[in-house]
Every structure is written in C-alpha cells, then in structure tokens.
Amino acid sequence: MDLRSPYVISIVELPRQEGASMNWEATLDAPSDMGVEMIGVPAGSPVRVALTLHSVSEGVYVSGTVSTRLVGQCARCLRDIAEDVTESVGELVFYPERRAALVEEGDEEAAAAQVVEHDHIDLEPILRDAVVLALPFTPLCRPDCPGLCSECGQPWDELPTDHHHEQVDSRFDALAELEAELRDQEQQ
Ligand SMILES: [Zn+2]
Ligand SMILES: [Zn+2]
Fold this sequence. Notes:
Layout: E1 8-10, E2 21-29, E3 39-40, E4 46-55, E5 59-73, E6 80-94, H1 96-104, H2 108-111, E7 120-122, H3 124-132, H4 170-187
Antiparallel strand pairs: 1-7, 2-4, 3-5, 4-5, 5-6
The structure holds zinc ion (2 copies).
One zinc ion binds near residues 151, 152, 154 and 163.
C-alpha cells in the first residue's frame, strides 16, 4: 500500500468499536485505468467521493457514492459519448487477522478481499470496482442508436431519412455471369 497515494486514507480517527463511524469526502484525480476499452474515466479527471466508514466486527465497512464523468464511444455509431454517473459503494475491508482466520476456514472470497494496513485503507480498488463493474458492456449514445449505414459507414443519425444506396447485389451479378458462361458453353 502506497501511503502517499491520495486514495489511501487513514482510519486512525475511527474507533475500533462496533457501531462507530466516520465520514470521508474528497475530490480526487482519476487513476489511469478506471475503465474498459470503449468507455471509462479519463486519467486525472475529477472523481467525487462521499463515504461513511463503519466499524464492524470483521473490519471496516465502506459505503457511500462515487461520482464522475465517463467518456467513451458508442459501440454502434462510434460517436463520442460523455455521461455523468454516480455509483454506490459498499465494501468490507477486513482486519488482517480476521481475513486470515476466514482464509484458514477456506473462505475463497475473503482471500481476495481488501485489508486494513497500518490503520489505512486503499480506496482505489474499491472505487475502481464501483465504477468499472457498473460500466455497460456495450456503451451506446442512446438506447435505440441506429448505428451506421452498412453501405457508406455514416451514422444514420446524421443522414437524411430518405438516405439509401442503389441496390447492386454482387451475388446476382456473379450468377448472371455464370449463367451466360454456361449458355456459351452449351452453344459450342
Ligand atoms: Zn450511437
Ligand atoms: Zn449510406
């Protein structure tokens, strides 16, 4: 855990006593990999975080919201899209000894869970999960985006409603050619 990271926060102020809680709010610069190929949060852009940290028996339960702006490309028409999102956060960060005990009991999920280290919690993986797991598999500029004209590749949204291309079906051309060829052969 890099204690210099702005995403690493101290919980020294949070009493280790069930039911205790503290609020934590900040606007941070987005880390470099908060997204997927088609859409995500550009590195350095603002990420607003409003959290409550709850002391629970197993560790610290982090809840609240993360708000930011997604930038990406529509999967159908390839135009740029930008969308403000607010995602909810809810993740248990274990005390190391509690996680160790669960792992020993065979809890595979606990093995991958975050732990409190030296009274600090790294929010980066927690916030990244909250944002990235909520990203659409297929980002769209609008739910019924008609995509691109298959002939000229222009977005249908930017084409006149009567846009069309002369239908030239090359398969029929090839058939006609073949037919003519066969006819020629028969006549020989
Ligand atoms: Zn689109
Ligand atoms: Zn076209």
